[in-house]
């Protein structure tokens, strides 16, 4: 049984496969392998251009659809109501699924009224395109605004999160409003692998620095979706539930956060809380 986080009836597996930058047969193969290994959470997005491959991998795995949690996202240029609905329906068509488990606003877009976008997002839940809905890259202020406009429960805020970036404010704001938190780039796009602190802690547990990083997040009940195109990394990333970090180790890892720790920069990003 995969460990999960619950939010407004959504049971989201604590570890999933991120598929950003995976394409075609490589993407399908990774999804298939992940599900056969025991993963039960796959994250994709319209912007990734791989939803068809994700669906192919899901079917090739032989794992029943109702055992897998599928997340997709609508890109920031499609946040007008009509565009949003089209994008969401295109996603399930490409996945060859009647619905997704979680539909997110990928990035906020200040040029489009959030009230309009939230109306479309909630409509997709009511019409069965998505079982659950949420947001991504939302700051404290945007979380409050989104919750105010939502007529359906929001269950998740997906944000960049790893030991080098202090995300205490958006995590607290999300949880205050009942949203779970998913970490993308949870191993800081590979930067943690040579970290002396994480490597030393890992050695004490017979684990790698990346595994320590993932364990740190899941021990905080933050969902992680590491991306990989390598079978051995797929196995490594999943093996984080057979050890536990001590309070002293958790504190030391938290101390790695520093200004400039963010690894994902995008021109359309909001003004961050960190």
Please provide a brief summary of the model.
This protein is of the alpha/beta class and 274 residues long. 40% of the residues lie in helices and 17% in strands.
Sequence-ordered SSE layout with sheet pairings:
Elements: E1 4-7, E2 10-13, E3 17-18, H1 24-37, E4 41-43, H2 51-61, E5 69-74, H3 81-95, E6 100-105, H4 114-126, E7 130-136, H5 140-149, E8 154-160, H6 168-176, E9 180-184, H7 196-205, H8 209-219, E10 223-224, H9 231-238, H10 247-254
Parallel strand pairs: 3-4, 4-5, 5-6, 6-7, 7-8, 8-9, 9-10
Antiparallel strand pairs: 1-2
Helix pairs in contact: 1-2, 1-9, 2-3, 3-4, 7-8
Percent of residues in β-strands: 15-25%
User: Structural class of the secondary structure composition?
Assistant: alpha/beta
Q: Output the CATH homologous superfamily of the domain at 10-186 and 222-227.
A: NADP-dependent oxidoreductase domain
Could you tell me how far the N terminus lies from the C terminus, measured between alpha carbons in angstroms?
35 Å
CATH architecture of the domain at 10-186 and 222-227: Alpha-Beta Barrel
What's the story with the biggest beta sheet?
8 strands, parallel
Number of helices: 10
Mean pLDDT: 97
Query: How are helices and strands ordered from N to C?
Result: EEEHEHEHEHEHEHEHHEHH
Helix content: 25-40%
Question: What coarse outline follows from CA principal-axis ratios?
Answer: globular
CATH class of the domain at 10-186 and 222-227: Alpha Beta
Radius of gyration: 18 Å
Across the major sheet, the strand order is: 3-4-5-6-7-8-9-10
Low-confidence stretches: none
CATH topology descriptor of the domain at 10-186 and 222-227: TIM Barrel
Number of strands: 10
């Amino acid at each position: 049984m995969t460990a999960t986080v619950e939010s407004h009836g959504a049971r989201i597996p604590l570890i999933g496969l991120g598929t950003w930058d995976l394409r075609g047969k490589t993407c399908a193969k990774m999804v298939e392998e992940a599900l056969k290994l025991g993963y039960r959470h796959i994250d994709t997005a319209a912007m990734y251009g791989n939803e068809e491959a994700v669906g192919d991998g899901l079917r090739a795995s032989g794992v029943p659809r109702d055992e897998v949690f599928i997340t997709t996202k609508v890109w920031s240029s499609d946040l007008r109501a009509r565009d949003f609905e089209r994008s969401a329906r295109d996603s399930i068509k490409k996945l060859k699924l009647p619905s997704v488990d979680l539909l997110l606003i990928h990035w906020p877009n200040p040029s489009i009224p959030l009230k309009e976008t939230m109306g479309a997002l909630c409509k997709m839940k009511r019409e069965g395109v998505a079982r659950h809905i949420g947001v991504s890259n939302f700051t404290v202020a945007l979380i409050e605004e989104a919750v105010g406009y939502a007529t359906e429960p929001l269950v998740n805020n997906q944000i960049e999160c790893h030991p080098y970036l202090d995300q205490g404010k958006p995590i607290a704001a999300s949880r205050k409003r009942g949203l779970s938190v998913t970490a993308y780039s949870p191993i800081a796009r590979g930067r943690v692998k040579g970290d002396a602190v994480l490597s030393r802690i890992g050695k004490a547990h017979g684990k790698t620095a990346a595994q320590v990083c993932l364990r740190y997040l899941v021990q905080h009940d933050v969902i992680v979706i590491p991306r990989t195109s390598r079978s051995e990394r797929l196995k490594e990333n999943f093996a984080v539930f057979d050890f536990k970090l001590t309070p002293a180790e958790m504190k030391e890892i938290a101390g790695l956060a520093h200004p400039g720790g963010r690894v994902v920069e995008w021109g359309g990003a909001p003004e961050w809380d960190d």
